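ugh ok fine here u go
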Amino acid sequence: MSEITHTISPNAKTHLIAENKPISGKKGVLGTHNSDEFYNKLKSTGKDINNMIDPKNIVYDKDFPGLQTIEYKIPKGDGKEGFLDEYKIIKSPKTVYDPSKYSNEEMYQWGLEAMTNGYLEGYLICGEASNGIKFMGYFRNGEITNFHPVTSFD
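structure:
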């Protein structure tokens, strides 16, 4: 990517840490890859977190303690502003980082590094920081709109 002229969206850091957007019925929790913020977002529904995340559906990265990929469900909306006691599986698992192991600033800087070193595949950027953490980003109209850590490029 270093040879391709690009800018970084001013929203990229917010997306990585904690989006200030409601939970989407289709995509689940948008952005919000800081694990504390991710769990807080799910808890904000007022529903039991154990109904949304089964510990068996959390994959811990063996090389980077504090990175994990989570398969999760969200409560269905009630058509107003509340949530039902029915749950929808989110198709795309969420990769989150533990801010007690990696600061928000470290993750952001490593993400920028990975985007610079990455390769473009359609609109996806796959890159790796010098410490080995992998990141995936999104490229549109000359701008890297956002990026987040991943445990693999599969």
